[in-house]
Design brief:
Layout: H1 3-24, H2 28-31, H3 43-63, H4 66-81, H5 84-91, H6 93-103, H7 105-135, H8 150-185, H9 194-218, H10 220-228, H11 231-250, H12 253-304, H13 316-328, E1 330-331, H14 338-349, H15 358-384, H16 390-399, H17 406-430, H18 440-478, H19 491-534, H20 540-557, H21 568-575, H22 583-590, H23 592-595, H24 600-618, H25 620-623, H26 634-644, H27 649-654, H28 663-669, E2 670-671, H29 677-688, H30 693-738, H31 744-759, H32 762-796, H33 799-849, H34 861-866
Antiparallel strand pairs: 1-2
InterPro entries: Prominin
GO cellular component, one term: membrane
Signal peptide: 1-31
Length: 890
Amino acid sequence: MPSKQKAILPTASWLPCLLGILLCLPSNSLCAKPMPSKEDSAAPLKKSVEPFYQLTEQFLDFIQPVDKSIGLLEDGIRVFTNHSVIAEYYSDWQTTTRRHTMSMLGYAILTCLGLLFIIIVPLAGCCVFCCRCCCGKCGGRLHHMERKGARCRRNCYGTSLTVLCTVMLCGVVLAFISNQLFRNAMDPKRPDYVFLQATKSLGLAAAELSAAPDRARNDSGRVRTLTAAVVRPAVAGAARKFRDHLIARSGVRAPLDEAEAANRLLADSGRLADELRRNWPALRDDLDRHLNGSLNDARQLLRGGGVGGCPIGADPNDCQLLRDRLAVMKPGGDFDAAPAQCNSQLSSWLPVGTESGSASRLSRSLSETEASLAGLADTAIGQLDTADGPVEEAIAAVNSTDQLLEPVWKAAEGLAVRVSSVHSDLAAGLVPDSGRTRSLEYLFLQVAPYWHLALVLMASLALTILVLYYLGLAFGCCGEAPYDDARCCNRGAAAYLLMAGSGLAFMLAWLLMLAVMLLFLAGGAVDTELCRFLTGRAGPAGYRALDTVASAYTRRYQPDQMRENGAPFQALLGDCRPVGDVRPGLAGALNLPELVNGTKPDRAFRRLSTRSVQLLNSRRDSLVGGLRLRPNLTELIRQAGAARTVDLSACAGSLTTSGSLTAAASADVIRGDPDGAGIAALHRISAAAVADLAEHQAWSRIVDQLDADLIRTLGRLSDQRRRVQQLSDARTRLIDLVGPDGRGGSRLADRLGVADSSIRRSDALSEAIDAGAGANLTVGLSAGLVDAAAAALSGVADCRKISDALNGAVRAPCQSALRPFNGFWAGLGLFLVCLPTCLVFSLKLVNLYRKSSKYERDFEEPDYMAYQGFCPSDTVPLDGRRKVPRRTGV
């Protein structure tokens, strides 16, 4: 045996031992009897597998979306509440079956794949082993020569099989950990025992709910304060609704909006006209001082530079062209007449100070009108909230009454009793100490040891297959070729180990898949169809679905014990979960809108609503006495008439510019250079004058200064043009608003007069009082009373404690127990998914490991044919003699 192979043997001897130790570490259920421990001892173990559990839940959400589960719940509710639907289902069972199958399509597909696995894997194993046993090729057969590339294939297959086995080992380890966590959750000796946590959490919720009504009943002063505080906000809201209804009924809003639009047009036009007038001097300053100065600097520089005034390197023709153009160039253009034209047109329409003149007067008039309309609500509130008014009477009635919300406290007590009864029933059905030996816990404890051993056995079978694979890989990697005198650690033994692992996999994989399928269907269905709704993973839609189920159940079996239109799940598991406002949760759980009807505050509030309507109807004239719906539109009509005589087309035409710094644009502000050739020649001279640095800098400075002056002047021209265009548009809109005949303003005033008369009519006021104030006051008082009752309960009942207790009762079975349960089949499922590929690689390695002779290139068939020793003797030259040709004839 070579020395290298002898050195490898000690390593191969301790590798299996190390592998066995490492495999025993993941689960203490295999190597040691589990010891009772505290709850925090399993916390690191739970955190380590938390990402895996989250992936499992995401996988379940993927194969069974929330909307499909909600559809199944809705179908179940229809069948549950209406037995006639069952007959329809039977009459069209094909459609019903197809719809339900599509709702569970993910489960159906995975179940079919699992059944195919159960059928195909044993058949494939029978075929493989029958062929191998009949052909005598099972295991390591000696003296078989390797083919070309066998070593590379052996390394590739071995590496791939190692990676897959490692992934499968992770799945098996996760299965062991999940099994241990599930066993811990179901261990009665541990403080996190599922049944104990569920009953304890329900007991805390029942105790908190039971104490809340008595606390609220004893805190009557706070209840009266909360109830009385409802009145004035409700009255204010009803007064605003009355005002809005009256304004909408009278039709005053449309003409007022038109008047506001006209007022804005006048204000904008006056501002634009003042800006237009203020910017003419700035434009003239740019022309006379800045632009004219730049042209003078260019003339001076052209006289004193270079040869004959032309810079060195510049084209003399450009210099001559620039000299000729500068002689006649001066600032100016068609816009010189624009100030006079624009000012003459605007003087009759928008004289100086229009922005703060007529528009301001119209604004004040419109503001007074709007203030009078807004004051309708304050007037109505003032009529009601007086010393002898109905508001003070309702508040006094509330403050003089004890036990205001007794039905609410009784309903809360009833809810607490129901939760307590659920807690008692659950405790009686779960805990054997209650005297019922046939409890669920008793039954579970009877089968728990066998259940745990069955799960351990399943994972151990998978682990045994992996151990054989790892041992085969270790022997194949570290062992020698299977010679006749080879020792135990050789690749022939590796082939036998791999064949043993594959045979065990072929025999047991179908059984493991069957068990995993059953666990998957049970645990997955409980998670997707129930627990993800309770834990909030399905979102608000899941809570609404559970509320629908609860309502259907109570309507059928307990119509008198629980409000059917409440929202207990959405309230207690969703809205009450944060520390914030708990009123929506309590209002939904107790159905407070129905409970407050008929209570003493409700009767007082109904009297308040009736008396308020009567009082407002008796004082209709005083409600609208302060209205001013006739704003002064004289200035608007005058300016609209003046706008019709204004023509801004000539002013706008003289301000037309090219809009950018080009040769054509420069001609807009400089006379004597219509085609821009002079400015272009100036740029060429500046670019060519590079021989003298000082001269080049001087020409560049002139060009930059002239360009900046041109850009600034053209920008001012563009701004003036924009202002003139905006003034023209405002003039057009103003004329359209008041009409081309100038009578639009009068018609607007007439419409406001009609609205003023309509808003003061008795029938309009009565309708607004009844529909606006009366109805909305009733709704506002009822909603305020519900909010006050919920606030009173939330002040004495810690909804966060109730929510946490109920969520703890949900988390105990759905997270502490169900997540490890699902994690077990998910871990073994990962093992089974990778197993077919591992079988292929292992069989490939078996064929490679049983070869005993290495591949030698010298003994290939082409080399045999080329070797001259195998040719006839008469073709072989002897003693240096010439080779005799081979005879081919007869």
